Amino acid sequence: MQLIVKKTLSLRGKVFPPSSKSQSIRGLVFSLLAKGESTLLNILDSDDTQAAMRVCVALGAIVNATQNTLNVISKGLPLGACTTEINTDNSGITTLFILPLLGLRENCDIPILLNCGEQMRARPIKSLVDALCNFGMSIQYVDQEGRLPISVTGKLKGGSTEVDGVNSQYLSALLIGLPCAENDSVITVRDLHERPYVNMTLDFLKQQRIDYTHQQIDNVDTFHIRGNQRYTPIHNTIKGDFSSASCLIAAAVLLPSEVELKGLDYEDSQGDKRLISILQEMGADIVIEHEKIRIKGNKTLTGMRIDANDIPDLVPALAVIATQATGKTEIYNVMQARIKETDRIHSMTEGLRQMGARVEEHEDGMTVYQSSLQGTFVKGYGDHRTVMALTVAGMVARGTTMIADGDAINKTYPKFVETMQAMGANVISDKSKPSNHIILIGFKHVGKTLIGRRLAKALNKKFIDLDREVEKLYEKNHPEPFTCRQIMQTHGESHYRELESEVLQHVLKSQSSVISLGGGTSLSLTNQEIIKPHVLLHVVAPRGVVFERIMVEGRPAFFDPNEDPYESFSRLWSERGEVYRKLTTRTVDNSGTVERAVNEAITHLHNQQGCSGHA
User: Fold this and answer.
1) In what side-by-side order are the strands of the sheet with 359-362?
2) In whole angstroms, what is the distance from residue 320 CA to residue 373 CA?
3) Per-residue pLDDT tens for 371-403?
4) Would you kindly state where each structural domain of the chain is located, as residue ranges?
5) Nearest to residue 271, comparing CAs of 318, 331, 312?
6) pLDDT reported for residue 433
7) CA proximity to 387, closest of 340, 345, 351, 361
8) Alpha-carbon distance 241 to 27, whole Å?
9) 188 forms bridges with which residues in the sheet?
10) CATH hierarchy code of domain 21-237
11) 3-state secondary structure 516-555
């Protein structure tokens, strides 16, 4: 699925952000460990919480869902694993929180395989594994040292260890599991990152009256935890999620808007509520009331320095906000953003640069300068927060933005698009599977149209001349018909290219056809990405012949008026030829007869793996 975003003029409305993923999954894990029936109200329904629920069932719990209420019935400890393999998909929090609990099973001497999705396999786990081995468990890497999947045996006995503070989930996982270990435990953490998430875990422990002590001296945190404790059933209402709300807040702040976000408790321990104070300091008009936040947008924002160590999930939204703030914004001290679902520092640097932003990437963050954004094709990197942030960027950008991996939003915010639409955002999700077209690319007047017509007839397919489709669209909104040359001469190349991209997106949704593109269509990164899945044929012809054909109609609008026509042609021939060759190695030589060129095209189609249906 991809998201298609166009410039949005304003936002209005009252909406509820989704429930907190962090609280939802903590609630599920504590419910699994507690003997009896627990109740979670307003729990998040997403890919990550679904993964956590499946794990709870695999470890012996009964999970019943009715509307927004979740009942978890567990026999408590020891956990009764009913399988020899558990798969946590790509849920990092579920994977790490469950790992210590595998040492609290019945028959811990029987190996259990902890597996996951490809994205989670790329994330480091060695620090937590080493700590658990020090606490009595035995863990073997199956494929690669320091990475999932792993085979787990042995009891969680307790003891003493040190764990890396770069990922707070390592510490939270131990804090949840160790009260149930046989013996007392001591955890030492140096340079703890993401402290608000640890505080959230400690809030759950306090609610359960767990006996522990915590001492912080300089950058060293030490926890003493009494063993042989037990959890009791919980009955919690999950709060609204400031992390998922961050992109709603960003959009409302950047655009002319009057938006009210409901269900957000500013008194809650979630660290990502800090976005509100950051934006207020930058100049945003945000009013905090009881469990709601009111925003009046389009105020002048001023760039600033932001220590994002405690708020790595906000990095994508902050980067987009920074493109619209005067001066520059420095986001620093957040190296751990590189080990989330993707390297978020890099994904946002690349995405915003493709949209025209000036961004400097640093090891621990990024510097973003005020920039004018232009819609284009951008990757979502399989990361929900990158996809949602780039959606906001697309809403303030000129033109159309297409975001790959749009279904990544299901990880935490499946209704993100619907919520944005309810406020007036110009964003849609495109779930359609495109037909497999045969697309002819190449320089103007190399013969794409003539070859395309003959090829379509030979294959019994529809032929589409993109230039003609552009002219048709133009005619719908103007009294006089214009050729492509006239449209470009009258309105400029930028306007023409936007019109051309719009038409291309439309025709690609039609049934499988032979499509001839204009010479400049495939220069756009957006257009390149959307034609790549199709069969591309590069039509070539003698350079001198092509120049003569072009000049019959006079100097074209896309030639530089300050250059000699042949010099302009030669430069463009070289530049565009490089683009065409990068898109496909399949060339069709039109230096002879059209029939020979068509036959060459058909040969390519027969040789194309899996293309027997094309001919």
Assistant:
1) 305-307, 328-332, 365-369, 359-362
2) 10
3) 999 988 899 999 999 999 999 999 999 988 989
4) 2-18+240-430, 21-237, 438-614
5) 312
6) 65
7) 351
8) 14
9) 162, 222
10) 3.65.10.10
11) ECCCCHHHCHHHHHHHCCCEEEEEECCHHHHHHHHHCCCC
> What are the pLDDT digits (tens) for 439-486?
999 999 999 999 999 999 988 889 999 999 999 999 988 888 899 989
pTM (predicted TM-score)? 0.78
What dihedral angle (degrees, nearest 10) is formed by the CA atoms of 16, 311, 305, 293? 20
Predicted local confidence at residue 92, as pLDDT: 96
Interval 49-69: pLDDT, tens: 999 999 999 999 999 988 778
| Contacts (Cβ under 8 Å, ≥6 apart) of 603 | none
Contact 359, 349 (CB under 8 A): yes
Annotated catalytic sites, by residue?
Answer: 313
Cβ contact 30:232 at 8 Å: no
Q: SS3 of 513, please?
A: strand
240 contacts 263 by C-beta, under 8 angstroms: yes
- What CATH number belongs to 2-18+240-430? 3.65.10.10
Q: Which amino acid is at 458?
A: A
For 171, the 3-state DSSP assignment is helix
> What stretches in the chain show pLDDT beneath 50?
609-615
Contact by Cβ (8 Å): 68, 240: no
Residue with the two structure tokens 């209005």: 12
Contact at 8 Å (CB) between 252 and 421? no
Tokens of 581: 């060759």
* Check whether domain 438-614 has CATH 3.40.630.30, yes or no: no
Query: Please, what is the average pLDDT of the chain?
Result: 94
What token pair was written down for 456? 């379509």
